[in-house]
Specification:
Aminoglycoside 3'-phosphotransferase, Chain: A, domain 2, 342 residues, Phosphorylase Kinase, domain 1, 10 helices, globular, 12 strands, four-stranded antiparallel β-sheet
């Protein structure tokens, strides 16, 4: 890779999770069911078909941008649900303890409650045909996003990030993101992989990035498509082309965020296949099934592309050792798995 690393943005600090009580009290919610949390958010059920999502480290303008983005997807008639933000709000409360400033502003959104269970909660309960059928539908669902073509003047790169990395070509965007991740992770990678392996990673990108020069697609890329961001529910009725009653299908896709991109739809295909490995105990045979299925659908050249995007994500997320050791462990495993030194 080129060594023009000083021009790249530093890795942002992850947001703190705010105390949700000020928002819950503002909305008149007493001990609402807690549905889950992500990096920088907590979600509670309001009991009326909506949820309240409490955000840390984001401002009102970002949430309004996200609201507009989700509204722009509505006309595309996707075969699964996506988030709908009904309201963006903010609660101001007095600061306590060592907090700086006289008040704390806590931002929240009121959103449609999406149907289904997280894929990761369902997969461990399935075996045999039912498991394979769900994995194949999970992979097929991500191909839906390639139908959402973005304007010709939209730069390649991030769509929703606060300080988006964008470029006039897809290759340039990929290079900037990987360089930034490797630069910020260099001390950890030197410790955990060694200098020779780190040089091999740079050599790999120098060799493989030219293969991305031909990419002209400008379509919507979710960018974080995996088991925690995909909801599934049971198929009901008489079956038919979607499957038999009692089987499972994708019911919703959530959390479009900083890695939502304009670019190559194969990014999502690769993520769907390899990100599931981040969950401890996940069987690698499922990844092999997903890769084989993707190759059958898109052609034999996809295998090399999946390997490339695995390593690109590993480079992009390699700075995560301190705040997300699970992801960092996956990055290290991916670097080693690719036999870069062979």
């Amino acid at each position: 890779m080129k060594e023009s690393l000083s021009t790249l943005p530093a890795v942002p600090t992850l947001p703190e999770l705010d105390d949700p009580r000020s928002v819950l009290n503002h909305l008149g919610l007493v001990n609402p069911p807690f549905l889950g949390r992500g990096i920088g958010s907590q979600v509670f059920d309001r009991g009326d078909g909506t949820v309240v999502k409490i955000h840390g480290g984001v401002d009102h303008a970002y949430l309004e941008k996200l609201q507009t983005f989700y509204a722009s997807l509505a006309p595309h008639d996707l075969p699964f649900a996506i988030p709908t933000i009904h309201h963006v709000g903010c609660v101001t409360s007095p600061a306590t303890g060592p907090a700086s400033g006289p008040t704390i502003r806590t931002h929240f959104t009121l959103e449609r409650r999406l149907p289904g269970e997280r894929l990761f909660s369902v997969l461990p309960r399935l075996r045999g045909h039912a498991r394979r059928a769900l994995l194949e539908r999970y992979l097929a669902a991500v191909d839906t996003f390639r139908q959402i073509v973005l304007p010709p003047d939209q730069p390649y790169g991030q769509l929703l990030a606060d300080s988006p990395v964008q470029a006039p070509t897809w290759r340039a965007f990929l290079e900037q993101m990987a360089q930034n991740g490797l630069r910020n992770a260099a001390p950890d990678l030197l410790t955990d992989l060694g200098a020779a392996h780190l040089r091999a990673i740079h050599d790999y990108f120098a060799r493989e990035l030219p293969l991305m020069d031909h990419v002209q697609d400008k379509v919507l890329v979710h960018g974080d498509y995996w088991g925690d961001n995909v909801l599934v529910d049971r198929i009901v009725g008489r079956g038919g082309r979607e499957g038999q009653p009692g089987e499972w299908r994708v019911s919703a896709v959530l959390d479009f965020a900083g890695m939502t991109l304009c670019g190559d739809p194969r990014v999502d295909v690769a993520a769907a296949a390899v990100f599931l490995e981040m969950r401890p105990g996940y069987p690698t045979a499922d990844t092999d099934l997903l890769v084989r299925t993707a190759i059958a659908r898109h052609g034999p050249e996809l295998e090399r592309t999946v390997h490339f995007y695995r390593l690109w994500y590993a480079a992009t997320y390699a700075h995560s050792k301190e705040f997300d050791p699970l992801t960092y462990g996956w990055c290290i495993q991916s670097f080693r798995r690719l036999r870069l030194l062979a």
